[in-house]
Specification:
The complex is a heterodimer. Chain A has 15 helices and 14 strands. By secondary structure, chain A is an alpha+beta fold. In chain A, strand 5 and strand 6 form a beta hairpin. The longest helix of chain A is centred in the middle third of the chain and has 20 residues. The N and C termini of chain A lie far apart (60 Å). In chain B, 40% of the residues lie in helices and 13% in strands. In chain B, a hairpin with a 2-residue loop joins strand 10 and strand 11. In chain B, helix 2 packs antiparallel against helix 3, helix 5 runs parallel beside helix 6 and helix 10 packs across helix 13. Classes of the chains: A alpha+beta, B alpha/beta. The structure holds zinc ion (ZN).
Chain lengths: 471, 486
């Protein structure tokens, strides 16, 4: 395989469940984890005679998503009916947007690359099916299938990217930034395991440098970044292998099984649905006022893409640090609180290195105080780690007081360290002799002995200097 | 006392109740008795709700009443009533008890109207004769061998036969105005959006409107007052620019009525044309100016309608799949698709299946633009054409139906002949306009309906003109056949 001569082309379709109080078109509560079929009403059960009513909160969240992704917000957008028979769809059509979506033509910059957003549109989620018996995950062959309508009618925004992504890693980086952006503006729980963030990937490969697109396949509904990345990588390898053997890629929908690492075909283009879209006559077009859009724009917090840039410029952090600190809004917030009263680079080190422990169970001001103790030479780095563990156990404690109480202060400038060095020299005549006969490496053994005696309260480099001067 | 309900208007009911001549219970009993006596032959009602109606009447007798409180009403069986069977005339919904009241039912109850029962209709409102009901045909009170029109035939016939002073129907392409015409009663389709569709089992969602049947124009206005207005459950409903007024007066001076010659040339039978022309003369005597207009695109309304309405219906009726409610037919070992097929093949009648197939076809990839797209463009042109016409005239008049009531069985196997019943009413639905049908005479002993069409939300203008004409025409809405039958 020669991946160097082949260029992967990836576009993503991301479904985001909005965290509105109620569903998209009815007054049922919208939340995850309730007893099956307890969050339902005649409307989301598709009973005869019911009519959808647009959830204004969902419209506003969709607009916020559009603004956060630098999209144009359509002056007028239209809901369509997408027709298909399946038990997860009680009306046998999904109300979605088709050729007139609410958000158009945006972008998100990831690690210096601009990834185009084709569109973002509003729609309703389907019910959840649980197939029992037979082939896992499929209705055909299942002994029976249970339907949970709680999820049915949950507001969704579908975000479609341009085919601008060039590797699974870049796709994952994009998705991580998107997830953080959605989290920052507070529109969704973005929990892939619970299905509030779902991602399909359109994957093709082409000879590097080619301006044409190869035949694409669609990878369906991956429920973690890892599986999505693995699935895309496997599909890219499969396509390259086909092309190098002179075979053709067939346009189809695939499912990646993370257990077996196998790709399975769900349906081919020939079996593709004809959804018979037509404008939903029960709803009037959306026409958000410019005043509403401006109000929502003004209400947006600083977005991760901007924050990453600011972390780099304001705090002078390397790009990778700035990106990592923005993996989630809570982490970035915590970092900023720590950096407010301590050295930013040290704050970044501490915040990133103490993950995945819950970052903020030590108050930011406390961590900042701890960092100051290191910077001021009061304690060494290794002692600081001990103090941090104590703080995790007792977040209300004061680092300086802990150092004091446990006698952890550095002993570099005191006579105590010099005395210990003298003791070690006296007790290890053999090492001393070897060192003095030219075996320089032996010094480390002596440093170790001193460090052990100080229980980490000294700086190893300082100890070494002291030893050398004495010997 | 037991009042004679034949020819008894809603205003008549109110007068009897206000005067204390009859109690609400006595009034309801009188209608129930007449239904008992007559409806075995007519089949206007699919179900009565005698006990519930008696109870509601007794409450008004106990607690006092005013206005429309205590006046009975009949509901087309396409309107959901909480806990009470609602079938839309279809086998597939037999036994279905809605979990909620339709918006108009809520409003009717709030006004104190007492629903007597649910009336017969063409299955899912698809038809012009009530013969497509899964539960038998309704007979025309003027001549039991004739159809009452459709799809709201049960409601129209019930009012004509004295089985209810008021009734609600729905009109997608003429389903209120055409049966009103064939049964000699007043029927009004309001402007699209004037009445909530919440709880109306959808046929063609962009065309469906609920409206009243009554013996008089004033009664129709009273009923429309009750049901009209914005409902937050229907996003397409709006508050009326002005409240519905109960019409008075008999003057049409200053009113210009347009008569679309090209539309009328499409095949109006001579007896209907004569009665129509006589009503135009009445209008002129009342001071109206009558002038000829053209609606060249409206001539193409019927084909456009039979693309749009089935398209919407194909989606609206897809939910009847046997999974959650209504009929479910399955054999051991059936896949879900086989269960769908078995349920829908058996649950839907032939006309409904015809329209589902038609609608599915016209929305299919590769055909959408040629059929559905073209039909929508025609619809836009028709709407503009009416807008243009209403810059010159106040009202447009046509017969409501090209023919009088036709014999049961005559058109049942000829869909195109059946569809032609809607020739003069369909353009009004496509344009979303209000229209009324009021009886304007007899032809061959059967009623002829005059249709008056107005611009959007001109209900009051239509009602005022219809009321004035009604007085001048002096039509006796009691069918002779009914009078002799007692
Ligand atoms: Zn609901």
């Amino acid at each position: 395989m020669s991946e160097a001569v082949w260029e992967p082309v990836i576009g993503l379709e991301i479904h985001v469940q909005l965290n509105t109080a109620t569903k998209m078109f009815c007054a049922c509560e919208n939340h995850f984890g309730a007893e099956p079929n307890t969050l339902t009403c005649p409307l989301c059960l598709g009973h005869p005679g019911v009519l959808p009513v647009i959830n204004q909160g969902a419209v506003e969240k969709a607009i916020e998503i559009g603004l956060a992704l630098n999209c144009a917000i359509a002056e007028r957008s239209v809901f369509h009916r997408k027709n298909y028979f399946y038990p997860d769809s009680p009306k046998a059509y999904q109300i979605s947007q088709y050729d007139e979506p609410i958000c158009l033509e945006g972008h998100l910059d990831v690690d210096g690359s601009r990834i185009g957003i084709t569109r973002a549109h509003l729609e309703e989620d389907a019910a959840k099916l649980v197939h029992s018996g037979g082939e896992a995950g499929r209705i055909g062959g299942a002994e029976y299938t249970l339907v949970d309508f709680n999820r049915c009618g949950t507001p969704l925004v579908e975000i479609v990217t341009e085919p601008d992504l060039r590797s699974p890693e870049q796709a994952i980086a994009f998705l991580a930034l998107l997830k953080n952006t959605l989290q920052t503006i507070g529109v969704s729980d973005v929990d892939m395991e619970k299905g509030s963030l779902r991602c399909d990937a359109n994957v093709s490969v082409r000879p590097a440098g080619s301006g044409e697109f190869g035949t694409k396949t669609e990878l369906k509904n991956m429920n973690s970044f890892k599986f999505l990345g693995d699935g895309m990588a496997a599909e890219i390898r499969r396509q390259i292998d086909l092309l190098e053997r002179g075979l053709q890629v067939v346009q189809e929908t695939l499912h990646y099984d993370p257990g077996t690492k196998a790709l399975r075909s769900l349906r081919s283009k020939e079996e593709a649905h004809d959804y018979r879209y037509f404008p939903e006559p029960d709803l009037v077009p959306l026409a958000p006022s410019p005043a509403l859009i401006e109000r929502l724009r003004d209400g947006l917090p600083e977005l991760p893409a901007a924050r990453i840039e600011r972390f780099a410029s304001q705090h002078g952090l390397p790009a990778a640090y700035a990106t990592d600190l923005n993996a989630e809004p809570r982490l970035a917030d915590y970092f900023e609180a720590v950096a407010a009263s301590s050295d930013a680079k040290s704050a970044a080190d501490w915040v990133l290195n103490t993950r995945p422990a819950p970052v903020d169970n030590v108050p930011a001001a406390t961590l900042a105080a701890l960092i100051d103790l290191i910077a001021g030479g009061t304690i060494t780095n290794s002692i600081a780690k001990q103090v941090y563990e104590m703080l995790v156990a007792d977040p209300a404690a004061d680092p300086a007081e802990l150092v004091e109480r446990h006698g952890l202060a550095s002993i570099g400038d005191s006579g105590e360290l010099e005395a210990m060095v003298d003791e070690v020299i006296a007790e290890n005549p053999a090492f001393v002799e070897q060192f003095q006969s030219g075996k320089d490496g032996v010094i480390n053994a002596l440093v170790g002995q001193v460090m052990k005696r100080t229980q980490g309260r000294a700086d190893a480099r300082q100890v070494q200097e002291l030893l050398r001067s004495k010997l | 006392m037991t009042p004679d309900t034949l020819g008894l208007t809603a205003e008549g009911c109110m007068a009897l109740l206000d005067a204390g001549d009859v109690s609400c219970v006595e009034l309801v009993e009188a209608y129930l008795a007449r239904i008992e006596q007559q409806d075995g032959d007519l089949n206007c009602y699919l179900r009565t709700r005698a006990d519930a109606a008696r109870e509601e009447a007794a409450r008004f007798d106990r607690e006092g009443r005013s206005g429309l409180q205590g006046v009975p009403i009949a509901l087309k069986d396409i309107l959901c009533v909480r806990g009470e069977e609602t079938t839309a005339g279809s086998r597939i919904l037999e036994g279905h008890r809605p979990l909620y009241d339709a918006g108009v039912v809520t409003r009717a109850r709030a006004a104190g109207l007492i629903p007597l029962g649910k009336t017969n209709m063409d299955e899912f409102a698809m038809g012009s004769s009530t013969e497509h009901s899964a539960f038998g045909t309704t007979h025309n009170p003027w001549d039991a061998r004739m159809v009452p029109g459709g799809s709201s035939g049960g409601s129209a016939a019930a009012v004509a036969a004295g089985l209810a002073p008021l009734a609600l129907g729905t009109d997608t392409g003429g389903s209120i105005r055409q049966p009103a015409a064939l049964c000699g009663v007043v029927g009004m389709k309001p402007t699209y959006g004037a009445v909530s569709r919440h709880g109306l089992i959808a046929f063609g969602s962009s065309l469906d409107q609920i409206g009243p049947f009554a013996l008089t124009v004033r009664d129709a206005a009273l009923a429309l007052q009750v049901i009209a207005g914005r409902d937050h459950c229907d996003s397409t409903s709006v508050e009326l620019p002005e409240p519905i007024a109960v019409p008075e007066g008999d003057d049409l001076s200053g009113v210009t009525i347009g008569v679309p010659a090209d539309l009328l040339a499409q095949g109006v039978e001579p007896g209907v044309r004569e009665a129509f022309d006589r009503s135009l003369e009445h209008a002129q005597h009342l001071g109206a100016r009558v002038r000829e207009i053209t609606l060249p695109t409206a001539v193409h309304a019927l084909p456009a309608y039979y693309l749009i309405a089935p398209a919407e219906a194909s989606a609206n009726l897809a939910r009847f799949d046997g999974v959650r409610y209504g009929l479910r037919l399955e054999e051991p070992g059936d896949t879900i698709v086989e269960m769908y097929g078995r349920t829908r093949s058996s649950g839907f009648g032939a006309e409904v299946k015809r329209r589902i197939m038609l609608g599915t076809y016209v929305l299919s990839a590769g055909y959408y633009d040629a059929y559905y797209g073209t039909a929508q463009r025609v619809r836009t042109l028709i709407r503009r054409e009416f807008d243009q016409a209403f810059t010159d005239v106040d009202l447009i008049a046509t017969p409501a139906s090209p023919t009088v009531a036709f014999p049961i069985g005559e058109r049942i196997d000829d869909p195109w002949a059946m569809y032609a019943c809607d020739l003069l009413t369909v353009p009004v639905n496509l344009a979303g306009l209000p229209g009324i049908s009021l009886p304007c005479g007899l032809s061959e002993g059967l009623p002829v309906g005059l249709q008056l069409i107005g611009s959007a939300f001109s209900e009051n203008r239509i009602l005022a003109a219809a009321h004035a004409l009604e007085g001048a025409i002096g039509f006796d809405p009691v069918p002779a056949a009914m009078r002799s039958a007692g």
